[in-house]
Write a structure and sequence with these properties.
Elements lengths: L6 E2 L3 H12 L3 H15 L3 H5 L6 E5 L2 E5 L2 H6 L1 H4 L2 H9 L6 E3 L2 E4 L4 E7 L7 E8 L17
Length: 149
């Protein structure tokens, strides 16, 4: 089954086709990536906080944390959206997104996002961040992930 096999596409068209096959449409995911990149680049913490599916479990410096609501994310923003995570997001292009049935991955797994069903029939989907892994980001020397702490 194609949806069970993760593949990194190398063109906008291939990524669009992959997301269409996995999620029924690529446009919401492409627009979400653009909004997320813009919000992080502008330092718009509140907009980024509004893009998260809560509650969200994340890991910071090897320790699990739970973000129950936007206020929790805002309090830990600098630990979660580190310079390395922001750089991974800045480098990410639509064409080189990795996607599988679980969602769409930025960089080396620093950020994952996916469609969240708005109702039981899943007729409406809202794309949200479903995972944040700042420890996945390479250290400042480009070495092992998590070495920048």
């Amino acid at each position: 089954m194609a949806a069970a096999t993760p593949v990194a596409a190398q063109s906008d068209e291939a990524t669009a086709a992959r997301l269409d096959a996995l999620f029924g449409a690529h446009e919401p995911y492409e627009a979400f990536l653009a909004r997320l990149k813009d919000a992080v680049a502008a330092g718009d913490r509140r907009s980024v906080a509004a893009m998260i599916a809560y509650p969200l479990e994340a890991g910071v410096a090897g320790e699990p944390i739970e973000l129950a609501a936007e206020r929790d994310f805002l309090q830990r923003y600098d630990e979660l959206i580190t310079p390395a995570v922001a750089a991974a997001l800045e480098r990410q292009t639509f064409a080189t997104l990795f996607a599988n049935a679980d969602g769409v991955m930025v960089g080396d797994g620093e950020i994952w996002f996916s469609g969240i069903c708005a109702d039981a029939t899943c007729s409406a989907v809202s794309v949200r961040i479903i995972a944040l892994n700042p420890d996945a980001a390479p250290g400042p020397d480009g070495g092992d992930p998590g070495m920048n702490r």
